[in-house]
UniProtKB/TrEMBL annotation:
<feature type="domain" description="Ketoreductase">
    <location>
        <begin position="8"/>
        <end position="193"/>
    </location>
</feature>
<dbReference type="InterPro" id="IPR036291">
    <property type="entry name" value="NAD(P)-bd_dom_sf"/>
</dbReference>
<dbReference type="InterPro" id="IPR002347">
    <property type="entry name" value="SDR_fam"/>
</dbReference>
<keyword id="KW-0560">Oxidoreductase</keyword>
<dbReference type="InterPro" id="IPR057326">
    <property type="entry name" value="KR_dom"/>
</dbReference>
<dbReference type="InterPro" id="IPR020904">
    <property type="entry name" value="Sc_DH/Rdtase_CS"/>
</dbReference>
<dbReference type="Pfam" id="PF00106">
    <property type="entry name" value="adh_short"/>
</dbReference>
<protein>
    <submittedName>
        <fullName>NAD(P)-dependent dehydrogenase (Short-subunit alcohol dehydrogenase family)</fullName>
    </submittedName>
</protein>
<comment type="similarity">
    <text>Belongs to the short-chain dehydrogenases/reductases (SDR) family.</text>
</comment>
């Protein structure tokens, strides 16, 4: 029997755009109340207002930087104060700096690791007790770059390889507490990541994974019977352009 999602509560980091926004849309359509975070309060609140239109569930926007543990703890407090519980966490916030090691700056390295890896650690630390109460679900958004290295990817590969390993260890840490943990590892996704602008070249973006596809995947994971756990999911475009 599948799990009913109505009246559940989700916290999505980096939920004001891209993958996080797509996941929020899918969850709201299932009756899940959602808190989306962004480093910009305006971006978070604008996204929440747009997400809440014509939906039976509610979205709120929260200012929080995943690189700051206190910010993450405050985001959890605001979410629980607003909705009374926390059932789902999607650790989605991320960024990418790319370049050969001779070009990569110390600041770029730190920002990539602090956001993509330490940020997920902070998200887990700040939400774990609430997830234990609700027997909830924690999902990290990693990448195929978490198993496949490439030239110019030193910082990004390191962060995503680390994230994949971290999330799998977290799964082992929490499963006896009734908390499910998965990592989703997408390939090319049509978002504004790394300066891409899908709005200007829609035909060129059609072959890529769309944000709503990942929203559908998250919903499917949450609906699964709790006796089964897809702990690591790779997802890639079905038919990328021929090289």
């Amino acid at each position: 029997m599948s799990t009913k999602l109505n009246n559940k509560v989700a916290l999505i980091t980096g939920g004001s755009k891209g993958i996080g926004y797509g996941v929020a849309e899918a969850l709201l359509a299932e009756g899940v109340n959602v808190a989306v975070t962004s480093r910009s309060l305006q971006a978070a609140e604008d996204a929440a207002e747009k997400l809440s239109k014509n939906k039976t569930a509610k979205a709120i926007g929260v200012k929080a930087d995943v690189r700051n543990l206190i910010d993450q703890e405050e985001a959890v407090r605001k979410t629980v104060k607003e909705f009374g519980q926390l059932d789902y966490v999607i650790a989605n916030a991320g960024l990418g700096h790319f370049g050969k090691i001779t070009e990569l700056t110390d600041q770029q390295w730190r920002e990539t690791i602090d956001t993509n890896l330490t940020g997920v650690f902070y998200t887990a630390k700040s939400t774990v007790e609430e997830l234990k109460k609700s027997k909830g679900y924690f999902i990290s958004i990693s990448s195929l770059a978490g198993t496949n290295f490439f030239e110019g990817g030193a910082a990004y590969n390191a962060s995503k390889f680390g994230l994949t390993g971290f999330t799998q260890a977290l799964m082992l840490d929490l499963r006896q507490d009734g908390v499910s943990v998965s990592t989703i590892m997408p390939g090319s996704v049509s978002t504004h990541f790394n300066g891409n602008n899908p709005d200007e070249k829609q035909e060129d973006e059609a072959w890529k994974i769309q944000k709503e596809d990942l929203g559908e995947l998250v919903v499917d994971l949450f609906k699964m019977n709790k006796r089964s756990l897809p702990s690591k999911i790779e997802i890639r475009p079905a038919q990328p352009p021929k090289k």
